[in-house]
Amino acid sequence: MSANPSFTPATLLAIWRKARQINLIDEKFRGLLRSGRLAAVYYSPRGQEILAAAMGVHLQPTDYLVTTYRGIHDQLAKGIPLKPLFAEYYAKATGACKGKGGPMHITHPETGVMVTTGIVGSGLPIATGLGWASQLKKDGRVTLVTFGDGASNIGAFHEALNMAALWKLPVIFLCQNNLYGESSKYAKTTSVDNIGERAASYRMAGVTVDGNDAEAMWRAAGEAVARARAGEGPTLIEAVTFRFMGHYFGDPGAYIPKEEYEAHLARDPMPATRAAVLASGAATEAELDAYDAEVSAQIEEALQFAADSPFPDVGEIDIDVYGAAA
Amino acid sequence: MSAPATATQAKPEVITFTEAFSRALHDAMEMDPSVIMLGEDIADEEGGGIFKVTKGLSTKFGTERVKTTPISEQAIVGAAIGASLAGMRPVAEIMLMNFITVPMDQIVNHAAKLRFMSGGQTHVPITIRTRTGAGAGTGGQHSDMLEAWFAHVAGMKVVVPSTPADAYGLLLGCIFDDDPCLFIEDQLTRTQTGPVPVKGEIIPLGKAHVAREGKDVTVVGYGRPIRDAMVLADKLAGEGISVEVVDLRTVSPMDTGTVLKSVAKTGRAVVIHEAPRSFGCGAEIAARIQEELFDQLKAPVLRVASRDVTVPFSRVLEAEYLYKASGIEAAIRRTLEKRTQK
């Protein structure tokens, strides 16, 4: 990658397409949850689609992802196929994890989705180990670990960043700062203005970027991936964003002041990015609509697959506790 | 000890526990390039580990494969987990067992559960070596036997050796097992010796070992108290009391079959461990015995364990805390009384 690569309309469109897929799936899931047709814990990524897509376009299927319970956007950006993903939400035997992990523990090694954790901050040390293995094997893979702003206050964050910087590991620490840790405002829980500043404590490259700005996010992500692939060590990216749908599905978000919410809604990255795609000439309105229809059809097909799939056999409870040799 | 076993050294008749641990690590690294190690102070520049178990390994295998870490237990265990997901067989050293309270999240929520939660798509072949044990005057935060906590979590394997040869074979067993293993080394007996193991011979996990055959009473447990039981069995044989000693070797998953077979034969059982008595692994062993063999028992199943208090510093108090060989002997005799009374 050159020092200042050009952000082409084609790249913008690629980011839009991935972000829009995430967006359409999220809308669909929320509708299913509201109507009672889907019963699952759900942490909506609404508002965080662009940053995940702009990161994802830089990664290969062989690269590793470690994400969190609010991770469906990261998993989709990494390329996880819809059928096993949806079937896992439906707790079915055909789910990625055979219905045994559920939405908070989505795993799909074929697309590099190695761990989805339900414990804040826990993914960072594990990502450090994946990066260590890549360094030892010289396999050129990059490990992306994503987490929220709240995770940056947990001890594991500091242990992992220090170790990754010390060992120059090919790991990208992507902090998705959506301004709220569960119900608490960022400023009430975090001692620094920007989490990106924390990288300096570990002599790690660190940057704070507008995660809702496709180009800015794409540039930051590209630099981090290039640095990791070149063996020049890890990067902490703080992507500032906003979470529109509360901490969990059903959270009324009463702790977010109305004016603040509306100000963010006015800057919603999805309509803004769509407008940017059209302005760039990468696609026409009709082409974007056709894409929406194509993705919606894929979603319906995958949902049907999930709905039609059987629940796991009860005997499955004794499988995968230990390996075969146990 | 100096460098791990080399061709130039005369083969000793016996080896210590420390030599056995060291030799197992050396041989595992020699056998399989995916075996890597990490932990505080483990490389030779830092002395080869505070207990010298890893001495010589970084010099022979390189500091990329034998990595000294910061004092960061969450990162140590997390990094081991991550590397194992990418196909390595990491051995993480947590210097002392009380420090394992720090990376509990990584062990309990991740190492133990990723195989199940991923529906078998991933697994975590890590070994966590740690050291502990009361009797060395190390007080309340450097002595605890916490094995019951981990035995209670499905997906973890917990291993405690009672001889140097077992230590060698079981540590190899842990390293080449495809599940996360916790391997507990006793700090009090580290210089004690035993017969030399056969190089490369793995003792499979999940199998108990009848360390001594007998017919009157079964003593079942693991780790250091098994050594006491073996001495007692010799002594009591002189009085015509025949003691069978069953060493679990792998605490969890427990080899219930071997225990039941022994107790079905003797009709009496004394369960022993160093950890405090209450809610310890001994309660689980005793429960399994009475659930299956109630009608065949000639006496209540008794437990001998340490006291339910914090490990004290003063030798006088520490001795009062620890289980005693005399307590094991007394329990054996009680089970042999016609009517056992409290």
Automatic annotation (TrEMBL), chain A:
GO biological process, one term: pyruvate decarboxylation to acetyl-CoA
Entry keyword annotation includes Oxidoreductase: yes
Entry keyword annotation includes NAD: no
The organism's place on the tree of life at top rank: Bacteria
Domain Dehydrogenase E1 component: 34-313
Gene Ontology MF annotations: pyruvate dehydrogenase (acetyl-transferring) activity
SUPFAM superfamilies: Thiamin diphosphate-binding fold (THDP-binding)
Name of the protein this chain belongs to: Pyruvate dehydrogenase
TrEMBL record, chain B:
Alphabetized InterPro entries for the sequence: THDP-binding, Transketo_C/PFOR_II, Transketolase-like_Pyr-bd, Transketolase_C
Protein name according to UniProt: 2-oxoisovalerate dehydrogenase subunit beta
Domain Transketolase-like pyrimidine-binding: 15-191
Keyword set, alphabetical order: Oxidoreductase, Thiamine pyrophosphate
Record's function text: The branched-chain alpha-keto dehydrogenase complex catalyzes the overall conversion of alpha-keto acids to acyl-CoA and CO(2). It contains multiple copies of three enzymatic components: branched-chain alpha-keto acid decarboxylase (E1), lipoamide acyltransferase (E2) and lipoamide dehydrogenase (E3).
Entry keyword annotation includes Oxidoreductase: yes
One function term, GO molecular function aspect: oxidoreductase activity
Cofactor(s) needed by this chain: thiamine diphosphate
Species of origin: Solimonas fluminis
Residues of the signal peptide: none
